[in-house]
Amino acid sequence: MIQRYTTSEMQTIWSEKSKFKLWQEVEIAVCKAWNEEGKISLEDLKRIESSLEVDPLRVEELDKQVHHDVIAFLTAWSEQENLAGSGRFIHLGMTSSDLIDTGLALMLKKTGEILISDIEELIETVKVLAIRHKYTPTVGRTHGIHGEPTSFGLKVAGWFHDLQRAKSKLEFGIEAISVGMFSGPVGSYSNLPIKLEERACYFLGLKRVPISTQVIARDRHSDFVYSIASLGAVIERIATELRHLQRTEVLEVEEPFYSGQKGSSSMPHKRNPWRSENLCGMARMLRSYLIPSLENIALWHERDISHSSTERIIFPDAANLAHFMLKRINSILKDLQVYPENMKRNLYLYGGVIYSQRVMLALVNKGLSREDAYKIAQSHAHKAWNNPEGNFKESICQDTEVSKLLSRQEINSCFDLDDYLKSIDEIFTRLDLITA
Q1: Exactly one of 41, 117, 190, 264 is catalytic; which is it?
Q2: What is the DSSP secondary structure assignment for residue 263, as one 8-state letter?
Q3: What kind of architecture, by CATH, is found in domain 96-192+205-255+266-345?
Q4: 357-404 residue pLDDT tens
Q5: How distant, in Å, are the alpha carbons of 368, 396, 409, 410 from that of 403?
Q6: What is the distance between the alpha carbons of residues 198 and 176, in angstroms, rounded to a whole number?
Q7: Which of 67, 143, 269, 301 is catalytic?
Q8: Homologous superfamily, domain 3-89
Q9: 82, 178, 193, 224: least surrounded by Cβ within 10 Å?
Q10: Residue 143 annotated among the catalytic residues of the structure
Q11: Residue 47 main-chain phi, psi, to 5 deg
Q12: For this structure, is 86 an active site residue?
């Protein structure tokens, strides 16, 4: 991942130093299990546990010779003088995938836990925004065209619920990959006691996988990647909405514009929603990682390494992007500029054409057929539409056929904004979106 979109937390987890440290933890967990089996003495175990961290530069140097990163890692570790003869017990009975897949599980679990923490922070930000604008009226749009009145808080409440589900998906993804394996070549436990696997996984805070080949089945990993891609899509949904609402002719919300910030190299007036646009692009990248993750499920026989090269890219990049996106959307929403007056202005364009359904239904309730009522409401709405002087309400009031059926008071009631917001309290209660 390029530095521009790298977070310090994910950079730490996905560094070579961190990977080799976790690999050591995996190997030590197996040694502890062997100690319980009486295979490794307590003295040998203590030497292994107290050994120094493996130097990534030394591993890299050895890898150029042996062309095998696990062997390079084990060789670099065994070179430590304080291990004495105890180093021979490291990796005892194991195969490379026991180490790689279990170490990867630890890295993905740590990644997921950080993302969960940031999702929870984002959910709280969205909750505050939704409650603050619970009754702020705005126009609802379908196909990008004015539909009927709603509230900005209700719009944000939808994001709140989306993010809660995204969190649940990620929790499922974390559970799916929080498993370890120590079953040896082809998964038959030929050189490892089968009960050793459960003990070693216990020491690592993982569950043992019920069955493995020489690798952990990759549908687990694709579940994790899906949960991240799905989270990205939810963030993109929010960002896309913000981009539309920031358009000059709409201007109902605006990304924060900070002191000293520049919008364009050529047009000084510009205040672009570039952060939201950036998030939409990142969401595309996250989705792109899902396809190779699904294709990694089908491996040859008990194992090949066609999945390995893609995973070296997918996991660290997806982790960094998802974390970066969470932090960015949270900062946008915390400082989001909301313009209720502009919302009100847009709400009443062309004399309230968005109240056309209420007028139609009022006419139907007076005995007019739905088709005839629709035609009357549509004709007056289209007369006002895109007309600087157009006024749907006044046009309706001047219609003699309508006046025979509806009083002025009944027409006015069709334009009652509060009636459109009457269910908001119940919806917020359903979502547990209430003030403390």
Answers
A1: 264
A2: S
A3: Up-down Bundle (1.20)
A4: 999 999 999 999 999 999 999 999 999 999 989 999 999 999 999 999
A5: 13, 8, 11, 10
A6: 17
A7: 143
A8: Fumarase/aspartase (N-terminal domain) (1.10.275.10)
A9: 82
A10: yes
A11: -65, -45
A12: no
